[in-house]
Amino acid sequence: MAARGIAAFLLPALVLLGCVADERIADAQALPTFNGELAMIALRRQVAIGPRVPGTDAHIETRDYLVEQLGVFADDVQLQSFTITDGDREIPMHNVVATFGNATESPVMLCAHWDTRPFADRDPNPDNRSTPIPGANDGASGVAVLIELARVFDIVAPPVPVVIVLFDGEDWGKTTANMFHGSRHYARNPTPARPQFAILLDMVGDADLSIPVEPTSLQAAPDIVRGVWATAQDMGVTQFSPRMGPAISDDHVLLIKAGIPAIDLIDFSYPPWHTVEDTPDKCSSESLGAVGSVVARYIYTLGG
Hints:
About 35% of the residues lie in helices and about 20% in strands. By secondary structure, the chain is of the alpha/beta class. It has a single domain, classed as Zn peptidases (Aminopeptidase), CATH 3.40.630. The chain is globular and about 55 Å long. The two termini are about 35 Å apart.
């Protein structure tokens, strides 16, 4: 993902969140608990396999791990495989699609990217800039939250159909024109049905997590932004901030362009971004737990 400029103002809390929390917030006692420690295990496991660069053995091993993990909990898991052409190379890529309930009927979409950047182009050490990044926060964190959400949805079925999509090829190229391949392919070929809206999780594991409102998200899906932030406020989750953050070029933009309202949960203020220092010690189970708990609670408020 890439920043596209910074809005230098704060969004008034009352305008964003409303004066009261959503009355449809589910009884917390009736909901399964999102386990941040389990999500952290999934984060570490992805990093331990190695950089998830398309075209490598680690990429295939990670793909199989994700299919296996989601397959334990989901009603169905499929690979949406495609190939991109980069110069004289043909690169196979795979979106992982897991469904909960009858997802042929306008599901809610939760998504993240599972690949890692092939080169640490932001590393302060020039010698590292051709080295693939570990991608603990930039990739593995969002995926880890979604794997744990799958476990939660298996315990208590969500009130609406849900599709979890793990995008491939988000971080592939040196420019945005050669990135976001998985979301671009999915936006053209939504499966098993066109989502009613999407929530993207990217860089949500930072131990010092503070997620601002992403401007493109607010413009494209203001009701979803307000609902998620109101849920966080109701739960006392302070990692969701009412301030306005930078506009980010990320997978949600491709979905929005295809007519799918989408929001991006992302803390772009992360010094190890696109460096070899993007490792699990920079992440925390508390951050993963905060994000996963809010998203779970929000999903359980739908359909009422």
